[in-house]
Design a protein that fits this description.
With 141 residues, the chain is an alpha/beta fold. It has four helices and five strands.
Length: 141
């Protein structure tokens, strides 16, 4: 089984980075899965949490928080998908999630939401919630 995870960076000490690192290490060690973690703009910085040496890291070198960079990101992601041919593609719900429908991929597409859905609702982020709901509607899980 080959899984490709998408996350902005791994140099932060946040919860998403920790959970992904722990999960990826576990899947490699206990199940022998092939794991690839693609970052958007790691820029050669070391991961905050340790990763098993068998986990591949790919930095796409595109800051997706800038609005004009998404076409470049999608092109580089497409190249990575063709090169690696993963069985499962998992977004950690960053900017690329709303473009998942444009990604030609025959495997399973998933999203992992590492934020509190309820906290977005409470803070009045209804637009973000609707965008999230639209983005995940066409995914496999």
């Amino acid at each position: 089984m080959k899984i490709l995870y998408l996350i902005d960076t791994l140099y932060n000490s946040g919860g998403m980075e920790r959970v992904l690192s722990e999960k990826a290490n576990y899947l490699v060690k206990h199940y022998g899965y092939e794991i690839i973690i693609a970052t958007t703009h790691q820029k050669g910085r070391k991961e905050f949490f340790p990763l098993d040496a068998r986990i591949k890291r790919e930095d796409l070198g595109v800051n997706t928080h800038l609005p004009f960079t998404m076409p470049c990101y999608l092109k580089r992601l497409k190249g990575l998908l063709q090169k690696e041919r993963p069985d499962i593609l998992i977004s950690l719900c960053s900017k690329e999630l709303k473009h998942f429908d444009k990604i030609d991929f025959e495997g399973i597409k998933m999203a992992e939401f590492h934020f509190s859905y309820e906290s977005l609702r409470i803070r009045g982020k209804n637009r973000e919630l609707k965008n999230l709901q639209r983005a995940v509607a066409g995914l496999d899980a």
